[in-house]
Specification:
The chain is α+β, with helices and mostly antiparallel strands. It is about 35% helix and about 20% strand. Strands 1-2-6-3-7-17 form a six-stranded mixed sheet, sandwiched between helices. A four-stranded antiparallel sheet has the order 11-13-9-14. The protein has a three-stranded antiparallel sheet with strand order 4-5-18. α1 packs across α3 and α4 runs parallel beside α12. It is globular, with a radius of gyration of 24 Å. The mean pLDDT is about 95.
């Protein structure tokens, strides 16, 4: 693959730059036409790379691109997932170059989507092209490239259910994440899920004078703060009844493997300007953000927050609360348990309303699986060091949906780095990672 990249490097970059120039911002109505343009361009690239078929499919939102190459029904089928939509570019004044005019500087491609996810999905197209052209393809390969990942993939799950047979596969291969570093490669074998809710606590039927009523009527903000404080105990344990029922404890061996990831506590605290970390007792910081669930208040408000003083006892207080979940925890079940618990702990002096918002389940690819082992062997061959298994603290809910719909596991074989500043101005993607990614993907098929 390395020789193929060297021989075709100029063409690869020209083709990638073509799709990077398309402002496929899924969240903006003004760019709706660009979404179609980008989808059609990806169809062209897949067909040119050797796909038997590729087409644009309509959804309730932005279109999906599906393509495939059938080799032999008896061989394993790999479904490559990626997304061609990108984040908005604001604040535009902080970009050193135009976000949709890609350029190379300091050994990296700079453009919106350079990493997330056009650059990374492009690696899969070119690794596929290499396998086809060199007659090395020993798998059936399918591509599903969506245009709504940056807005929560609202249409893809329903579309995937309708086309379940067409999407049938043995593994979902994804490059839409980062690795620890170039010197410490890693493979993300799981991500946390999410349950997100809004709570409302109501006391009196109107705002009251805090002098006339303070001390006699329960302040909803005080009540809300007390209730929230009770959700996590002194050991960092979430007190919602039944919250941990389906949480699977990792074995000592698995925890030891995750501990291989380099972590500097001093540097971590200094980068955040904090004096101490805090979390669930008995777990390291990396474990707390990867293999354990958590509960956080994302916003809280009520009463008077304007300039100056207003001595008011508010009628209503609000908070937004998120819970990051680990595989086996169901987001809807957790939302129900939280609601039941929060209503139960409410004092009789206030009324409580809980409104669930969006959510999604986590997923896990066992490190003992053939797909993970193949990816690890491929990455080790390219980087010269065995990759560290890692878990993402964030969430990609659509992958859990696809896992449930297709009954197969996703494998996150990402090559981005933290330096790439995705979603921010000056998004970039190192050329070295771009090329190593293609090599690693091609080798994955050799070992899987």
């Amino acid at each position: 693959m390395k020789e193929y990249i060297q021989k075709n490097e100029k063409r690869f970059l020209e083709e990638l730059f073509e799709i990077l120039r398309i402002p496929s911002i899924s969240s903006l109505e003004a760019n709706k036409g660009d979404m179609v343009t980008c989808a059609n361009k990806l169809v062209e690239l897949l067909l040119a790379a050797g796909a038997d078929s590729a087409a644009v499919y309509e959804t309730a939102g932005h279109p999906v691109v599906f393509g495939e190459k059938k080799v032999d029904p008896s061989l394993p089928t790999v479904l490559v997932y990626g997304h061609y939509d990108v984040q908005p570019v604001d604040p535009i004044n902080l970009w050193k170059s135009q976000p949709f005019e890609p350029e190379i500087r300091d050994g990296a491609i700079y453009a919106r989507g350079a990493n997330d996810d056009k650059g990374q999905l492009f690696m899969h197209v070119k690794a596929f092209e290499y396998l086809v052209k060199e007659n090395k393809l020993r798998h059936n390969i399918k591509f599903i490239l969506e245009g709504e990942e940056e807005i929560g993939s609202p249409s893809l799950a329903a579309w995937a259910k309708e086309h379940k047979e067409m999407l049938a596969c043995d593994v979902i291969l994804v490059s839409d994440t980062t690795m620890i570093s170039e010197k410490v490669p890693s493979i993300n074998c799981g991500m946390r899920g999410l349950a997100y809710l809004e709570v409302e606590v109501t006391g009196p039927n109107k705002d009251l004078h805090s002098g006339h009523y303070g001390g006699a009527v329960h302040n909803p903000i005080n009540a809300l703060c007390t209730m929230i404080d009770s959700l996590i105990d002194e050991k960092g344990h979430i007190t919602v009844e039944g919250f941990y029922d389906n949480v699977v404890e990792l074995s000592a061996e698995d925890r030891e493997m995750f501990a291989r990831a380099p972590f500097d506590m001093k540097e971590y605290k200094e980068s955040l300007d904090i004096d101490e970390v805090k979390g669930e007792e008995g777990y390291t910081t990396l474990e707390r953000t990867g293999i354990r669930p958590c509960l956080d208040v994302n916003g809280i408000w009520g009463g008077y927050t304007g300039e100056g003083a207003k001595t008011v006892l508010p009628s209503v207080a609000h908070a937004k609360i998120s819970m990051r979940l680990v595989p086996n925890q169901d987001c809807e079940e957790i939302a129900e348990k939280f609601t039941k618990h929060f209503l139960k702990i409410a004092p009789k002096s206030v009324k409580v309303k809980v409104t669930p918002h969006h959510g999604g389940n986590g997923f896990l690819m066992p490190i003992s699986s053939p797909a993970y082992k193949a990816a690890a062997k491929a990455v080790e061959e390219v980087y010269g060091i065995e990759p560290v298994p890692s878990r993402g603290g964030g969430s990609i809910p659509i992958l859990a949906d696809l896992q449930n719909i297709l009954n197969v596991n996703p494998l996150l074989m990402g090559f981005g780095l933290e330096r790439d500043t995705i979603h921010s101005p000056n998004e970039s993607y190192l050329l070295s990672q771009f090329y190593k990614g293609m090599e690693s993907i091609a080798l994955f098929y050799k070992y899987y």
